[in-house]
Amino acid sequence: MTVRENLAAGAQTIVFLGGGRITSAILAGLKLVKHEYKLRVHDRNPEKLRQLKRLYAVSVEPNLGRAIAESDVLVAAVRPDAMRELLGNLQESRPIAAATGAKELRRAARPLAISLAAGVPLRTLGKYASRFRWARAMPSPVGRFGRGLTAVAFPHDFSQKDRKSTKDFFALIGTVVEIPEAKFDAFTVTYSSSHGYHALAALADSAQASGLDRKTALLASAHALADGIIAWREGKVQLEELIQEAATPGGIAAATLAAMDASGYGESVRRGFSAGLQRARENAAK
Ligand SMILES: NC(=O)c1ccc[n+]([C@@H]2O[C@H](COP(=O)([O-])OP(=O)(O)OC[C@H]3O[C@@H](n4cnc5c(N)ncnc54)[C@H](OP(=O)(O)O)[C@@H]3O)[C@@H](O)[C@H]2O)c1
User: Fold this and answer.
1) What are the φ/ψ torsions at residue 102 (nearest 5 degrees)?
2) pTM exceeds 0.85, yes or no
3) Atom from ligand 1 closest to the CA of residue 48
4) Using a 6 Å cutoff on CB, does residue 48 contact ligand 1?
5) CA of residue 160 to ligand 1 center, whole Å
6) Domains and CATH numbers, the chain
7) At what angle do helices 184-191 and 265-285 cross, to 10 degrees?
8) What is the pLDDT of residues 74-96, one digit of tens each?
9) How far is CA 236 from CA 233, 240, 245, in A?
10) How many CA atoms, within 13 angstroms, populate the side-chain half-sphere of residue 274?
């Protein structure tokens, strides 16, 4: 079923459990596109709920039981170290009889739940909240601008219909890729927009220290990091060719890159990567 067909069958209510950074980014992205999902947020902080309601015109529900009762799909968006508690609450909570009759009966059958928690595997989700059928998704906060990238992973017995409705939802805010769960941590470490922002800050700081004003330093650094990469992604030229073109042998760029490599650029990235993977393993063990 496409999003349109799903919606024709009755607008689905998506309930976010946790109204923090990633939920805000997704809601902002969804505000940019036409869709007919009903969006609701549950969080333990009333002030966050008030703010989300004001910014994104979503409905909010401070009571977990009622939030579950009113949902077609749950999106678990609490931090990994808060997941165990949330899973326990989900497993124990019984939908409050606000939704009654046939709709409640339909919802009683193992609802679809999507976890955004980094490093928390499907086996943990199923173990502690077995009354839901779990998928995982790793959306990017850049979805806020409609330029997201979301990886999704499903248990092997997940229906095509559930796979499709999960992907269709995240496709509203950017590209979606389905990958095996075993690759999820590597994807999570790699895809983070923090790499770009981090590199931008470091390059701009060096540029400023070499005499550029802040504005020009940021403009030049953003061009260096973003514009060529966007053009590469949209075109057909090989990455190696573009590196050759931009860094003339014996020239300034070549000398800059060689000095960065010699002082451990590659090693630095590798170390960062393994620290990220290690953190994902720690999250999985909690
Ligand atoms: N941020 C990203 O870019 C990003 C990207 C992809 C995936 N993720 C994943 O998304 C999840 C959320 O990340 P985030 O950055 O959005 O975290 P966040 O900003 O801390 O938001 C989580 C929210 O959930 C609330 N919460 C925690 N436990 C709760 C519970 N039992 N019941 C109700 N509300 C509860 C938190 O309240 P308190 O503040 O009181 O704890 C907070 O308001 C994480 O697992 C992360 O791995 C994040």
Assistant:
1) -60, -40
2) yes
3) 43
4) yes
5) 28
6) 3-184 (3.40.50.720), 194-285 (1.10.3730.10)
7) 130
8) 999 999 999 999 999 999 986 55
9) 8, 12, 15
10) 5
Q: What residues pair up with 16 in beta bridges, in sequence order? A: 41, 75
Token couple for 128 = 């502690």
By most ligand atoms within 8 Å of CB, the mutation choice from 15, 24, 43 for ligand 1 is 43
Average pLDDT over residues 67-72: 92
| CB atoms near residue 44 (< 10 Å) | 14
Q: Could you give the strand order of the β-sheet that contains 148-153, starting from the edge strand earlier in sequence?
A: 59-60, 38-42, 13-17, 73-76, 112-115, 133-138, 148-153, 174-178
Q: Tell whether ligand 1 has an atom less than 6 A from the beta carbon of residue 63.
A: no
Rounded to the nearest whole angstrom, what is the distance from the C-alpha of residue 80 to the centroid of ligand 1? Answer: 8
Expressed in angstroms and rounded, the spacing between residue 198 Cα and the centre of ligand 1 is 22
C-beta 29 within 6 A of ligand 1: no
Nearest one of 136, 157, 135, 73 to 107, comparing CA atoms: 73
Pocket test for ligand 1, best of 24, 40, 44, 86 (most atoms within 8 A of CB): 44
Reported confidence tier of residue 7, pLDDT bands at 50, 70, 90: very low
Question: Of 95-99, 127-131, 220-224, 249-253, which range is least confident?
Answer: 95-99
Q: Is the CB of 82 under 6 A from ligand 1?
A: yes
pLDDT in tens, 105-133: 445 578 999 999 999 999 999 999 999 99
Q: For residue 22, how far is its CA from the centre of ligand 1 (angstroms)?
A: 7
Give whole-number Cα distances, 54 to 25, 29, 39, 49, 166, in Å.
14, 15, 13, 9, 26
- Closest to 150 in 3D by CA, of 114, 196, 197, 195: 114
